[in-house]
Amino acid sequence: MSGTTTPRDARAADVPLQRERGSARGRSERRGADGGGAYGDGAYGGGADRWAVLVVLCLSLLLVALDATILHVAVPAVTEDLRPSAIELLWIVDVYPLVAASLLILFGTLGDRVGRRRVLLLGYGLFAAASAVAAFAQDPHVLIAARALLGVGGAMIMPATLSILRQIFPERRERALAIGIWSAVAAVGAAIGPLLGGFLLEHFWWGSVFLVNIPLMALCLPVGRRLLPESTGDGDGPWDVLGALMAAFGLFGVVLGVKRVGGGEAVFHPATLGPLLVGAGLLALFVRRQRRRTHPLVDLRMFARPAFGTSVGCIVLAMLALVGLELIATQYLQLVLGLSPLETGLRMVPLTVAAMAAGLFGSRMLQRFGPRTMVALGFALTAAAVLSLTLMGEHDRPGLLATAFVLLGFGLEITLFGAYESMLSESPAEQAGGAAAIGETSYQLGAGIGIALLGSVMNAAYGPGVSAVPGVPSDAARAAGHSLGEAYEVARRLGGPDGRALRDAARDSFVHGLHITLLASAALLLFGALAALRLPRTMECESASAVVPCDSAAPTADGIPGQQTRARAPITAKPSA
């Protein structure tokens, strides 16, 4: 009948659209010096090669995650050897995450233009060279410069690992498994950093915490050069150098200001407020510039997709609620319960094991429950774990602590897993580097803001309890109000009944502040659970004819259910016979 369109006619009419999509995606995924761009059914469409690539990517991420925490235990040894000033010591610790967070968007989008493999390999080389300089530094300024170069290398590596993973696993179910492994490795790296650093310091000098990077990078560089596929984005238009610099300096200013607030500096201090205002202004100009450009550095229209914008928001909320809490919990274990650094690390093992398990089983959970339920459930479990920790007081309760840490690790990991997977699946393949950089930047910003926000809550609840202890001079009380560790030092100098009174008051106030901070963190997590309700209900995969749930069969060309097709696999137009 002339007025009726049959399913076969609809499919025929859809062929030009499929070919247009195929040409756009084909351009982005067929480029590469090694011919490794055809990820759909080519060299990385099957077999073990892509899983070997995943091993290389995970090893790269492990080193970057290790370097973010391994230096913490070496700070006393560095202080004794190099004698840095307080400001120099602060920069030694903070310059690595500060530089890395600032450059993620720059190098993520640069990889989309010049090649993700190329940027990743350059990051390997720079990371190894900077590690060697840091290990043998004889001056605080040399160590600061080396740590800054490590941040540059880390910014090259982090988004490239996730964007290459996006390319070599086009089928969404397999990609979910790969992201689970990737996220589990990140959790392991951050957790074992202090333990590995403590072991190295017991047997070697402080520079060994940097030297451990060199043999692993020496392995990654040739293996990665051989195995890693090259890929770029669509390559249309020039790369926006000015926009990249605006993003880098804007993020640097915002992160620097947030870190100063988290370190206890006044918000309205010129050295804090200045970077915050300048950074925020540059980021606002960056957003305005990207919206006006025909070929933007970052396609901000991705945020108009509910799944992408919500996923980024969930990453920020998860880190905002938990990173500051982690630092406070470490102080609680050591200063209130009196555990050694090694005992503190061992108490965190259940959290790490639970996070690993969640990463490895997350793909099955995502297919079964879908992104909305999984992320909301993760937030709810984490909030329950945080609330249960309010039962902790001045006496050790190891069973309660272990149970709460298991729930915390599992809940946090499935939250971040579901959010990262949804964010990456919603981004176009040709902008995988930019999307990965946005995810990593939101992670870093959430962590920095969390330290500042929860640290402020903690200080507001802790300070009044030590401000008016009978028999303690006002200047000593002010010093004790800075932190529990400083309060213990002041109490030791005072000695006698006044010192004991100050010590007891400081410990009681810290526990009270911890409970208030836990409640604030739980409120943020519950807000995250509500925000996660905007995510898709099911995990959807694309086929040539329909978008279907990943756990169901897609219709074939004849309308008969068949096997599941690849998610967002490139659709290439072949000439007709």
What does this structure look like?
The structure is a single chain. This protein is mostly helical and 577 residues long. It contains 20 helices and two strands. It has a two-stranded antiparallel sheet. The radius of gyration is 25 Å and the shape is globular. The model is unreliable at 1-48 and 552-577 (pLDDT under 50).
What topology does this entry show?
Layout: H1 7-13, H2 15-30, H3 49-69, H4 75-82, H5 86-114, H6 116-135, H7 140-168, H8 172-203, H9 208-211, H10 213-227, H11 241-262, H12 270-292, H13 306-336, H14 341-347, H15 349-388, H16 398-426, H17 432-466, H18 474-480, H19 484-494, H20 496-531, E1 540-542, E2 547-549
Antiparallel strand pairs: 1-2
Strand content: under 5%
Tell me about the largest β-sheet: 2 strands, antiparallel
Poorly predicted regions: 1-48, 552-577
Order of helices and strands: HHHHHHHHHHHHHHHHHHHHEE
Instruction: Output the structural class.
Output: mainly alpha
Radius of gyration: 25 Å
Helix content: over 70%
Q: Can you count the helices?
A: 20
N/C terminus separation: 29 Å
Chain-averaged pLDDT: 75
Q: Name the shape in a single word.
A: globular
Strand order of the largest sheet: 1-2
Biased composition (Basic and acidic residues): 8-33
Keywords: Antibiotic resistance, Cell membrane, Membrane, Transmembrane, Transmembrane helix, Transport
Protein name: MFS transporter
Subcellular location: Cell membrane
Short key terms for the protein model shown above:
577 residues; mainly alpha; two-stranded antiparallel sheet; 20 helices; 2 strands; 73% helix; 1% strand; disordered N terminus; MFS_trans_sf; MFS_dom; transmembrane
